[in-house]
């Protein structure tokens, strides 16, 4: 079984995962662009019972385009978002792929909000594409 560790920059907030993610996706929505400071966000979903969260976090709640909230947890010291809890999927913990700092992490299979994708971003042909 695969075990992974995600953390903030200073290492005070960590998430340990057991097993493979149930979904790896990228999101091009404007909120994710602002939250990450990048042109899209990459995230991995894990079943909540396969995740151990350690360390202090601050929380920011955002209501998405579909009307459901996500509770973003970030380190109160360095500010990095390490995980979030989507209201639409109550038994899931979602973790930004970059928090794992693992170049061998599984690739995304889904791309959402592509209507807001930067035109110069190229994506693999074999992933699902949603506007």
Largest sheet: 5 strands, mixed
CATH architecture title of the domain at 3-23 and 42-104 = Beta Complex
Strand content: 35-45%
Order of strands, widest sheet: 9-4-3-10-11
CATH topology descriptor of the domain at 3-23 and 42-104? Metal Binding Protein, Guanine Nucleotide Exchange Factor, Chain A
CATH class of the domain at 3-23 and 42-104: Mainly Beta
Mean pLDDT: 95
Instruction: Compute the CA-based radius of gyration.
Output: 14 Å
Overview of this protein structure:
The chain is mostly beta strands and 131 residues long. It has a domain at 3-23 and 42-104: Metal Binding Protein, Guanine Nucleotide Exchange Factor, Chain A. The protein is 5% helix and 41% strand. The chain has one helix spanning 30-36; strands at 3-7, 14-18, 23-27, 41-47, 51-54, 58-63, 69-74, 81-86, 92-96, 110-112, 128-129. The radius of gyration is 14 Å and the shape is globular.
Main attributes of the structure:
about 130 residues; mainly beta; Metal Binding Protein, Guanine Nucleotide Exchange Factor, Chain A; 5-stranded mixed β-sheet; 3-stranded antiparallel β-sheet; about 5% helix
Any chance you could write out the topology, listing elements then pairs?
Elements: E1 3-7, E2 14-18, E3 23-27, H1 30-36, E4 41-47, E5 51-54, E6 58-63, E7 69-74, E8 81-86, E9 92-96, E10 110-112, E11 128-129
Parallel strand pairs: 3-10, 10-11
Antiparallel strand pairs: 1-2, 2-5, 3-4, 4-9, 6-7, 7-8
Write a brief structural summary.
By secondary structure, the chain is mainly beta.
